[in-house]
Design a protein that fits this description.
Layout: H1 2-20, H2 26-41, E1 46-50, H3 56-63, E2 67-72, H4 75-83, E3 87-90, E4 103-109, H5 120-130, E5 131-143, E6 147-151, E7 160-164, H6 167-174, E8 178-191, E9 198-208
Parallel strand pairs: 1-2, 1-4, 2-3, 4-5
Antiparallel strand pairs: 5-9, 6-7, 8-9
Helix pairs in contact: 1-4
Length: 211
């Protein structure tokens, strides 16, 4: 586990400036706008972003009236968040309880796909523990196949670990921790460059279970 986290940290430290200058695809903009609209409709005002990267989504939620806390494993990513005025911490999804805060909604776009399958229940329990009653949880990950492995790309010598799930497998894991409001699989044109295998994007909206 420590080597997986260290490789991820090194990769994203190295990628921070490039990602800070990159653009976000339209479908991702639509996903976060839909979540913002739902959060406002339900009068949710306090949000935690997991794996915030350079803080684009956190800044969007802040500029639209939410009180945001962001966490990321990478010190360089957290630095970019803070430069945007975001309340950001160098923590990952294993450490969210250390914030000693409760949140009305949690946003995790393409961050939990780095969690090994054996560790996902633990991470989901941590998220549940910081989510208020009736809290909303958005999880977005690539998937459509069941696999997990580390991948090395041309842009870095540091490998990244990815876990992918089919819809049924992921639903079975998630429903043990949260009420699933919706589970959508989107064709976003994502393909693995080496195998040419296609990946769906899995957009999951959940709510804290009623006691």
């Amino acid at each position: 586990m420590s080597s997986i986290k260290e490789n991820l940290r090194n990769y994203y430290n190295q990628e921070a400036e490039h990602r800070n200058a990159s653009y976000k695809q339209d479908w991702k903009l639509k996903e976060r706008k839909a979540f913002l609209d739902l959060a406002k409709h339900e009068n949710k005002q306090i949000l935690l972003e997991l794996g915030a990267g350079t803080g684009d989504d956190s800044l969007f939620f802040m500029e639209n009236g939410l009180k945001v806390t962001a966490v990321d494993l990478s010190a360089e990513m957290v630095k970019r968040c803070k430069e945007k005025g975001i309340n950001a911490y160098e923590l990952d999804y294993y450490q969210v309880t250390a914030l000693n805060k409760q949140f009305q909604c949690v946003w995790a776009m393409n961050s939990l796909l780095h969690v090994p399958k054996t560790e996902l229940p633990r991470v989901l329990t941590n998220i549940d523990s910081v989510l208020e009653k009736n809290g909303l949880f958005y999880m977005g990950v690539y998937g459509g196949v069941d696999s997990e492995s580390e991948y090395v790309t041309k842009i870095s010598e540091h490998p990244r670990f990815f876990s992918f799930y089919t819809q049924g497998t992921l639903q079975n894991v998630l429903k043990k921790h949260f009420e699933i409001i919706s589970f959508r699989q989107l064709d976003v044109g994502r393909r693995d460059k080496e195998s040419q295998r296609g990946f769906d994007f899995q957009s999951i909206l959940m709510q804290k279970r009623q006691m």
